[in-house]
Amino acid sequence: PELWRVQLACSPDGRTLAAGSLNGDISLWNTQTGERVRSFREYSFPIHALAFSPDGQTLATAGTDGRVCVWNVATGKEELSAEGHRAALTSVLFGAEDRILVTVGTDGTVRWWDNAGKQTRLVKLPDCSLLCISLSPDGRTVVTGNNHGHLHIFDAHTGKNLHALQAHRSAVTSLGFLADGRLLSGSHDRT
Could you report the per-residue pLDDT of 17-32, keeping only the tens digit for each? Predict the structure, then answer.
């Protein structure tokens, strides 16, 4: 039986919806017909994050074992698996360069990965769990949210921490940019 779906991601063209479950299953759905196109299993750990590449041809998944995987959407075959986080991953995104991945996790790190699965940059934020990440529309800025209500703003290309601010009284659980570059954040403090 299928377990409750915990994460969703829509392909850039809007035609495919990816769903990740608590048991590690990944399902791809045709958004026009509602039919399941493909199912595959990442591993037996819950999936915490999903992200399509800008071209929609690959899907990144991240879970509680600290691993990020990249899958070919057309075949369901794993193209890449990378490890480095010491705890659960909470969010993943593709950078503006299409095959560059950025991950965050409960170990308080932001990690950049190249298309071969090699970690290229690492930023450690002390005494926090990073819960979410977002990339600005121009691809120049990465923003993370943590369990203490802070936002950290990074240069997407160098990893330099540009700014930090207390945005909420509680954990920042979601981030998103509007097309004009304005940042939205959501928190357990209900703001």
Answer: 999 888 888 999 999 9
CA distance 78 to 24: 14
User: pTM score, two decimals?
Assistant: 0.89
Give the contacts of 57 (CB within 8 A, at least 6 positions apart): 72, 73, 74
Distances (CA, A) of 32 to 14, 15, 36, 39, 128: 9, 7, 11, 17, 41
In terms of DSSP bridges, do strands 67-72 and 78-83 run parallel, antiparallel, or are they unpaired? antiparallel
Q: How many residues are recorded in the chain? A: 191
In 3D space, the residue among 124, 26, 8 whose CA is nearest the CA of residue 77 turns out to be 26
> Contact 152/161 with Cβ under 8 angstroms?
yes
